[in-house]
Amino acid sequence: MLVNAPVLQEFINGAKTAIVAAGAYARVGEIPLWLVILAGFIGMVKLDWAFWLAGRRWADGVLRLFAQDERQLRRIDRLKRIPKWALFLMTLIAPCPGVPQPLVYIVAGWTGMRLRLFLAANFLGSMLFTLLWALLGYQLGRAAVDVLKVIDKYSLWVTIALIVGVFVFAFVKENRKAKQKG
Known about the structure:
Elements: H1 6-13, H2 16-27, H3 33-45, H4 48-66, H5 70-79, H6 84-93, H7 101-110, H8 115-140, H9 142-181
Helix pairs in contact: 1-2, 1-3, 2-3, 2-8, 2-9, 3-8, 4-7, 6-7, 6-8
């Protein structure tokens, strides 16, 4: 999908790779840059409110269910008192690679962050990172498009080879076990 429909992929899942790929296609004139940014932004934010809501409704009960002693319960209570500015910053940088977005959004809901404030931080951070990824792809341009086309050309065959390899490996391993027992 990165080659044939990067805008659709970024709209569906908000993937950073799809945003970069679409930005590269925008550079070579195949996709308008505004569409890349809009689809990437919508893809990144469309379900984040659901994680906030899950945190608001169920996180307290789930955390207390898994707490094994009083010390862990005290840690949970301490975590719930995170300052509002820290929650805002955490939500703002959640789209950054390496940050567990769903966990940040669940904690934001659980700690009582207002939906309006959550959405403001979420929209601002997602727009910032969408622009960053789209501009990265735009800068890469033709080179990234060429690499994507090569990957697309061989990906089916590499996938089939990996699947066959896994089956052959499993068959050989089971065959050896059967010979050792018999």
